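Objective 1b: paired records.
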Amino acid sequence: MKKQIGFLLLSVLIVGNGYAGERYYVQKVKDGDTIIVSKLGNNRAEMLEVRLSDIDAPETTKGKRRPGQPYSRMATNALAAEVLNKEVELRCYGLDRNQRSICHVYAEGEDVGLKLVEAGLAWAATYNMKFVRNLKTVPAEQLAKSARRGLWADTSEPIAPWIWRRECWGEGRC
């Protein structure tokens, strides 16, 4: 119970301010667009799940009936190389339907989500433009696509994660 209250208070602090102004330590990378962080100087048990703002990375496997997408492991590894076991800064905007904080994540002053899009390892979250706050994200995707970087190197058109979740996971058309 104390752990849940601490998590809730930390979430309110981050989301309520719109900008935390504090540094966090990345404990875990769950997939290509989700990390677990703890506030620096606090008990490492106080963890917060963060969904990177502006992007959608290829889906990882989530069970037998929810297979992953090509490049999901590459996106996860790239995110881990940028942030795992490192200090980051967060600029948060709210919670998603899974109660994860939606944040821009900055490592060494650079927007990590934008770097993934530039590398061709994530899409700009254009399924709803209100989720794209950094105006560089959409053009970065177009540049990665035209340069055939990452998932854009394949000859076939990659399936965006929001379509994958609906058609593959939701409708069983994988």
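Objective 1b, second protein:
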Amino acid sequence: MRCHHFDSGACRSCTLLDLPRPRQVAEGRARIEQLLEPFLAPGAEWSAPLVGAESGFRARGKMAVAGTAQEPRLTLPGQAAGADLCGCPLYPPGVESVLEGAKALIRRAQVPPYDVARRRGEIKNVLVTASPDGEHVLRLVLRSEKALDRVREHLPALLAAHPSVVSVSANIHPEHTTAVEGDHEIPLAGAASIAVRTGDVPLFARPRSFLQTHTEVAGQLYRQAASWVAEIVAEQGGAPRLWDLYCGLGGFALHAALAAPTAQVTGVEVSPEAIDGAREAAAAQHLEARFLAADATSWAIEEAAGAEGPPEIVIVNPPRRGLGERLATWLEGSGVRDVLYSSCNPATLATDLASMPSLRITAGRFVDMFPHTQHAEVIVRLRRSDPT
């Protein structure tokens, strides 16, 4: 992939873009395997990396608004003087057009971009979600509701010019922080969710839902986990219980329920909005999986102390901070034989594994979720070496 923004020096976010793609993947894989080598079980195997398209893959666009109401620019957060990056080649077809439509809306509605240094202005960021089917969700991050009437007045022109936009909302973010968005979402037009085909199921994303960056690679990731679950269930027989902790929109849980229909699948996630999306997806696919809005760590510890005890299988997909001492300690002492751990931060994965010496890696795969960057993800299959 080549990028004129990178070549001109306007944007250097893709820090590895000068390296040939095979070298990027090979070096990323080598770093992960070296980091996790102390935690391997005898005979553990690394399969080929999970790799997808190197351009046109980003499910989410997050652009900061700079310039003026008459001449807005969409650039990277924290780069008020940066070049307009609507034409980023990481975005799927159609996203650039929607971003240009958002700039036209800002001009028509005369919404001044937020000036970080002066703490003035109204519109902070423009966020776009793209589905593989070419549909888009547009979100405008505003400092207040002051400009909403003008936005509503001119929104029909945007929707007429860009029929791929199926939902528009305003996110109100009054705080002067580096956070991209706030807690208050105001629907302006369209559907409450967007179906994003990921692997073998559609995930129903609400405006503030987390989506994996690379939809194609995420689908492969969920399928790999489902394949391991199917193998484990075939070994165990019966109807084992499976907990998907930090389940988000239910990608792992839904694929597990699809691959192993006899398993009793429960997904747990702190975000009620994400749980609503997971339940919608389960209903749409007629899958037997239940989803609960709760703190994953507290729920797991409390549920395991009940009459049924801990489950037979656990999937964890924590945020970058990892599982943390409390959940890692519980898993270590839980007696659960099989754990699948999907990590977006291999360093915290290594820390967690050091806290769970009874659970050893039997298989793993490097996941190239962010091509052209040092960011690495990995999924590992763990098995208890001394079942309790």
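The chain has two domains: 4-53+213-384, 60-192. The radius of gyration is 22 Å.
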